[in-house]
Amino acid sequence: MDSDGAVYGFFAAPFRLQTYKNLLYLGIAFPLGLVYFVGFTVGASLGVGLSITIVGVPILVATVAATTVAAGLEAHITSYLTGVEVSVPSFLDEFDAREEVSLPGDGFFDSVKRLFTSRSTWASVVLVLSKFCFGVVSFVALTVAAAFSSAMLAAPFVYDHPRTGVNLAFGEDAIGSYGFGPWTVDAVPEALAVAVGGAVFVLISLNVLNALARVQARYTVGLLGSD
Q: Would 168 be classed as within a structural domain?
């Protein structure tokens, strides 16, 4: 992208549908990452802990298989929301339940063997576990961006009503006043200046969040591959 295109893309971020799809992608990252992480760690712990019994191995197999399903879901979500094409784990792509789950026969055992020897299976495990870390980063980034943006943009409306506004000032002098950092806002021009700064902050934040979504999408492609 040339410099003119990059500048246009920077300022056009609030007006692109892709920006809000990226925000949704970041917004659901934490709950999904938490579900993935808890599901895998609980299932794997039970499976390994009970491996000396007859129920441990099926639990472990089911957990690993469910992990590939979660990675497949993540691939579809990433492709749909970020526009970056991601392939589903090869085990899911090649799996045929009618042939491989039916017993008696060797299909079931062959599918289990392929599950545990497939590179995409272990890439799915890495993706599911790392999704939790990415979810935490996304949650913090979204929370900070939303908190500061809303507080700054609201300055002209709440600066003289500190009880209904958000006070961002520091120190004892900030008590009972609307402030931003060491600067106490007590006049309309100052409040308007804070709001303008808030608009700039929103613009920067949207571009940073877009970049964060692209990084996660590319990371997912790196693990699972691209269609």
A: yes
CA 116, CA 132: separation in Å to the nearest integer?
23
Q: Give the C-alpha separation, 124 to 91, whole Å.
A: 10
Token output for 114? 């392929």
Low-confidence ranges of the chain (pLDDT < 70): 1-5, 93-108, 159, 161-183, 227
Query: Is the residue at 106 inside a domain?
Result: yes
Residues near 80 by Cβ (< 8 Å), separated by ≥ 6? none
Tokens at 152, concatenated: 């700054």
Tell me the torsion sign for CA atoms 58, 77, 224, 27.
Answer: negative
Q: What pLDDT, on the 0 to 100 scale, is given for residue 93? A: 67
Spatial strand order in the sheet of 178-181: 168-169, 178-181, 183-185
Q: Is residue 89 part of a domain?
A: yes
Distant-in-sequence, close-in-space partners of 154: CB < 8 Å, separation ≥ 6: 165, 166, 195
- Beta strand 183-185 with 168-169 is unpaired
* CA 131/CA 36 separation, integer angstroms: 8
Strand partners, 169: 181
Domain boundaries, position 79: 14-224
Helices (H), the chain: 3-12, 17-27, 29-49, 56-82, 90-94, 97-100, 107-117, 119-153, 155-158, 188-224
Count of CB atoms situated within 10 Å of the CB of 151: 19
184 assigned to some structural domain = yes
- Report the greatest alpha carbon distance in the chain: 81
Prediction pTM value: 0.83
Domain count, the chain: 1
